[in-house]
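so the lab meeting is tmrw and i was supposed to have these ready like two days ago... anyway. pasting both below. for each one the top line is the aa sequence and the line under it is the structure tokens. i havent really looked at them closely yet so no promises
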Amino acid sequence: MKTMISRIIFAAGGTGGHIYPAIAIADELRKLNDKIEIKFIGAKGRIEEKIIPLAGYKLETIKISGFKRNLSVKNFLTAYKILKALKTSAGILKDFKPELVYGTGGFVSGPVLRSAIKLNIPSVIEEGNYYPGVTVKLISPKADKVIVNFEGTKQFLKRKDNAEVMSYPVRENLKNYDRTDAVSYFGFDASKKILFVFGGSQGAQSINTALLKCIKNICGSGIQVIWQTGDKDFESISKTISGNKNVKVLRYINNIDKAYSAADLIVCRSGISTIMELAAFGLAAIFVPFPLASENHQEKNAKAIVEKHAAEMIRDNELNEKFESTILSLINDDNKLVYMKNNIKQFADQKAASKIAAMLIDLVSKSKN
């Protein structure tokens, strides 16, 4: 009989894309063992300080940040922070005595997993992006397991035998609503097509600018638009298109699952959490990768989906030329929309979190025998 995990630490922070999958796995472990002790380690001053306690989990923070990708004096400070974070992480692990440490990539995972490996605590690191980040590359050779979202990611890892392809978990609180109800929530007509445009929680200025240039033509074609602008552009865009009943401008969407449920087509960045949410909902999308993402990983994510005919991609520097025509040609092509929606579903696995939880239990059970 497999031994249940009694204590586990998750190293997850910096972005929602690193935090939500860890919470999803933690939730599954808690379902299997309501006595399990779970602790998260995150970065001080980052969004995990808000998200993780709201999810009902204990959080300890370490002072850590990522290296700048150019020559910068800040890198010397970062190196000092890493040394201090290693010491703090080791102290937390020795005190909590976890049976396993799970990291979701990102700079928070580095010192925590490095300390776990040094203390001979079973360790797992997860990489959702197609191209692995620096932390994953450094930690993966000595980790017990490396979970990757794409088969192609293995080619970038120094060691392959400990890598396993498993779908990136999607946050559990997302609900697939009846389309009519979702459309009604935004005050739109369910008989007309709906375009949902967003650039992450902070918005994306380049996408906002491109849409603003063609919003009259898009709405003139009978298309309704849900537009999450982000905080920076909200006021100016709201004033510019004031009175246009076919556009719902929002600073931020708390109920993003309602927007997903209402939309016929999405335009967004290509962070891995967003991609996996679209896959879970089976949505057609045009990806506009963030051009400054580390290792250009958003474009690599998008390409992996486009190659399976599950989405289209426009680079940031192509927006002026291709944005309007790509949207109009795709949203009016019902056959292609259905084709893309069916294809993107292959990347989703509704049971991803429970499968990973089962794998972690098996790993801990074997380590005790």
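ok protien two:
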Amino acid sequence: MIGLDVANQFYTEYYNTDNLDEFSNTDIFTLKYLGEETAWADIQSSAFFKKTDEELVERATVRAIDNAIAKLQRKYEPFRTITPLLTTEPEITAQIGLKEDLEGGDKYEVLEKIQDPETNITTYKRVAVIKVDKNKIWDNRFAADVEQAENQENDLGETQEINATHFKGSSKHIYPGMLIRQID
């Protein structure tokens, strides 16, 4: 997984550097055009919600950008979200959700970090595959918490009680902090 190797080097050598010239002049990073996506966001206004046009445009803009990024993540492997597991017992959860365009049944590989003690090189090994539980997908989109509060206040729509997406699969051999990445 070359992407993770480069990411490790980036975080180790460049993430906290004050010298941007070092980062700009390195040859470990190259850019390659992969593609583009377009997206939009449906933001509704009603008499119940006192939002200005500016607030609605801000919400629509951020969500449209998030939607375009989510499309890139599905289509191109280098854009795929890699995130740590939050819990494994009693439920397998991670703090990703609708913002990342999760759908019920999406598959994620669980990766175990392995560091060679002699070379200090980090690799990742797949130890499990888990699936998104279609009934427990967290709404982590921009301003979702505000919409939830408005819905609850006005007895409109559902309110969500979860703060992470739940996954189905065996929790054997996995633990919180292990990384997950979407697979086809």
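from a quick look at the 2nd one: The mean pLDDT is 86. Residues 32-183 form one domain. will dig more after coffe
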